[in-house]
Write a structure and sequence with these properties.
Blueprint lengths: L20 H24 L8 H15 L2 E4 L4 E4 L2 H12 L1 H18 L4 H24 L13 H27 L3 H6 L2 H24 L3 H27 L9 H18 L2 E9 L2 H8 L1 H19 L3 E7 L2 E9 L2 H13 L5 E3 L2 E3 L3 E8 L6 H17 L4 E3 L2 H22 L3 E10 L7 E10 L3 E3 L1 H11 L2 H21 L5 E5 L2 H4 L4 H12 L6 E6 H4 L3 H14 L2 E7 L6 H6 L4 E4 L1 H6 L4 H16 L3 E5 L4 H10 L3 E3 L9 H14 L15 H7 L1
Parallel strand pairs: 8-9, 11-13, 13-14, 14-15, 15-16, 16-17, 17-18
Antiparallel strand pairs: 1-2, 3-5, 3-8, 4-5, 6-7, 10-11, 10-18, 11-12
Helix pairs in contact: 1-5, 1-6, 2-3, 2-4, 3-4, 3-8, 4-5, 5-6, 6-8, 8-9, 11-12, 12-13, 14-15, 15-16, 17-19, 19-21
Length: 695
């Protein structure tokens, strides 16, 4: 019969979880009741141990049934259908109550010890088996059909009632123990799938009279009777394997989307009765596509296999972790009393990923974003909770935070963003992307003007969208490679056009972390430089510091290849990330760009002024050029010149403008800055025509 139906959380090794006090108390009570039953039966019935061949043969099959349970996946975990029930009931009918109790309990103990079950569970299982057989025997005594039972039509009702008593005692005790271990409400757990348990147990009890009748004819028929049972075992085990495959992910062994949906439905039904909450979380690994693209899908699979058990342990016995596909997981946690508790669960999931994953002697730090939705605040159905958790997860990624709780105001925004992502591919194909250019001028008496290429999207309905409005979407949807290649092509084409006019300007292009980890990026850059006949030193790739450092090791090969070509590298938004001196020394970097937030406040905030001064000094000591972004006043421009900053970029110089206007700005700057205010000559780019005029 299905006993005991331990949940998945209760099947973990004893060393990894502690048996609760409630279960210990239940085990003590069950053991005392079993001991009292044995004492009463010994006094009233006596042992009358049957040493016949039939007794020992049936006992051997009881043990075989215990050693070969059929694991059947159910909602809360695994039910073990033990075929020993038929033969234990046959021993009861042939040899009496106490011999059947002894055989059943001994077989259970042997099987549990072999399976390395915790001592508390070993004692509990043996005790509840004794009580199950004792209950069946008591019914037979009360029905005046005390064992040994002679088979005839008049005893059939008594046998049916005895089987029912055995099933009820077993189901109640084993189900209560499983619910207590899983910290779930007992009554709903016992009521869950009663027809399945009753049908399975009924089929096994029906075999017992057949086994007894066969043994009355000849003991040699008992092994023959075991044949159909063995067939049931083989078929049932294969069915269990098939069911497990249907509801579990093959790579990680975790439940899949179907089992998660079933479990969330059950959790919601339970929460409605108990009045507690349920949390559903979507966990998405950050930049996992880069791992597959750079190191291969086999390496990515190994990472998923290492991450899965960490997340499952972080969820704990109150929940369930499932893999939805790719690098996306979902967690269900029951018994949530308030939303803050759900966020603490999300923090535990993130904390489980803090230790690096060691794969093939490579240490890899994996991070994730978590979206949280709670029942009943954020939805009352499985689909609502999963969709809202997904919205929260994308909101967390968009805000570059680690976790986020669903909020209604983010819903429409997230739907708009997803719709925007679907339109982006068509926008690239239709030529809706444009590039604006922002000049970058030298502050000292050496240097050449440069421009930064900044992509815009001229959306047919929404107008001009800045990079912050669609580049994160491109990263999430895999379109960032197409966007990067388009911007590189447009920038180098413009560079070639200005060179034909006699204007030599270095072009800076922002590169996403995902693009930087693309091993094809150097080949793409080389091909475009050759196509437009642009020297490699006129191309500079800018990498945002806060998003780059985490993937430093895997990006160095690409960076060194680009640097070997002559392409220069700059770290953008410097000061907002986590670069260390040792990392800056390891990187093939030519320039650091101070984040605009520090430069804009350096006039009014003493700390920001000190920070800007320190970064300039750091760049000088490391032999790097330093550019200050966000220069918006003449005072800041003058101060930066005095501090020895190399370049200035900001609204004081020029806003990002289309290519034609940028060309006019550069010409005006070149004309106006032939001589600096302090009398020093500053070199600005000039067209060949203007150069001839001054010759």
């Amino acid at each position: 019969m299905p006993a005991p139906p331990w949940p998945a959380s209760a099947l973990r090794p004893a060393a990894s979880r502690r048996v609760s006090r409630r279960f210990a108390a239940l085990t003590a009570a069950t053991t005392l009741a079993a001991a009292a039953s044995v004492a009463v039966l010994t006094r009233t019935q006596g042992w009358k141990l049957d040493g016949s061949v039939r007794f020992w043969l049936l006992g051997a099959f009881v043990l075989a049934g215990e050693l070969l349970p059929i694991a059947v996946p159910r909602r809360h975990g695994l039910d073990k259908v033990t075929l020993s029930t038929a033969f234990a009931f046959a021993v009861l009918m042939c040899s009496g109550i106490l011999p059947a109790c002894a055989v059943y309990a001994a077989s259970s103990i042997i099987a549990d010890v072999y399976a390395r079950t915790s001592p508390e569970k070993v004692v509990f299982n043996a005790s509840q088996y004794i009580l199950s057989i004792a209950g069946a025997g008591a019914v037979l005594i009360l029905a005046h059909a005390a064992p040994p039972v002679t088979l005839h039509a008049s005893v059939v009702p008594a046998l049916a009632l005895a089987a029912l008593a055995c099933f009820l005692v077993n189901h109640v005790l084993a189900g209560t123990g499983a619910a207590v271990l899983a910290d779930l409400p007992v009554r709903p757990y016992l009521a869950d799938d009663v027809p399945f348990h009753a049908l399975t147990a009924g089929c096994l009890f029906l075999l017992a009279p057949w086994v007894v009748a066969s043994s009355d004819t000849s003991v040699a028929l008992i092994p023959v009777a075991f044949g159909p049972v063995l067939a049931i075992y083989v078929a049932g085990r294969q069915a269990g394997v098939n069911a497990h495959r249907a509801y579990h992910d093959r790579l990680t062994g975790l439940p899949n989307r179907w089992l998660l949906s079933d479990s969330v439905t059950t959790a919601i039904e339970s929460a409605e009765r108990s009045g507690v909450g349920v949390a559903v979380m979507i966990v998405d690994l950050d930049d996992f596509k880069s791992i597959n693209d750079t190191l291969g899908h086999h390496f990515g699979d190994r990472v998923l296999q290492l991450v899965a058990p960490r997340l499952a342990d972080a969820v704990g016995s109150r929940g369930l972790l499932a893999r939805l596909g790719g690098d996306e997981f979902a967690a269900l946690v029951e018994g949530i009393t308030e939303p803050g508790e759900a966020m603490r669960c999300a923090d535990r999931l993130l904390a489980a990923l803090e230790a690096p994953c060691e794969v093939d002697s490579l240490s890899l730090h994996v991070t994730a974003s978590v979206g949280v939705a709670c029942y009943p605040q954020h939805g009352r159905t499985v689909d609502e909770l999963l969709r809202h958790a997904d919205v929260a997860m994308y909101n967390a990624k968009g805000e570059r935070s680690t976790s986020a709780m669903y909020a209604h105001e983010h819903d429409e925004y997230s739907i708009d963003r997803l719709a925007l992502a679907a339109q982006l591919r068509r926008g690239i194909e239709r030529g809706e992307l444009v590039v604006h250019y922002q000049p970058k001028i030298p502050l000292g008496d050496h240097g050449v003007c440069a421009v930064e290429a900044l992509v815009r999207w001229n959306h047919p309905q929404l107008g001009c969208i800045g990079p912050e409005g669609f580049v994160p979407l491109a990263e999430q949807t895999g379109l960032i490679k197409a966007v990067t290649e388009w911007v590189l092509d447009a920038a180098l084409a413009q560079c070639a056009a200005w060179r034909r006019e006699g204007l030599e300007v270095r072009f800076g292009v922002n590169v996403s972390t995902r693009s930087l980890l693309d091993h094809e990026l150097p080949d793409v850059a080389r091909s475009l430089l050759d196509r437009y006949a642009v020297p490699a030193e006129l191309l500079q790739l800018e990498i945002t510091e806060s998003r780059f450092v985490a993937d430093l090791g895997r990006a160095q090969t690409v960076l060194h290849e680009l640097r070997a070509m002559g392409v220069t590298i700059a770290i953008d938004d410097f000061g907002t990330g986590y670069s260390s001196l040792s990392q800056l020394q390891q990187l093939p970097v030519d320039e650091i760009k101070i984040d605009r937030s520090f430069v804009m406040r350096m006039e009014t905030d003493h700390d920001d002024g000190v920070l800007v001064r320190s970064i300039i000094e750091l760049g000088r000591n490391l032999g790097l050029h330093v550019t200050a972004e966000g220069v918006e006043t003449a005072t800041v421009h003058h101060t930066l010149r005095g501090l020895g900053c190399d370049f200035a970029q900001g609204y004081f110089v020029s806003r990002p403008v289309p290519a034609g206007e940028c060309r006019r700005v550069l010409a005006a700057l070149a004309e106006a800055a032939q001589t600096s205010p302090d009398g020093k000559t500053v070199r600005f780019p000039r067209t060949r025509e203007s150069h001839r005029q001054h010759a």
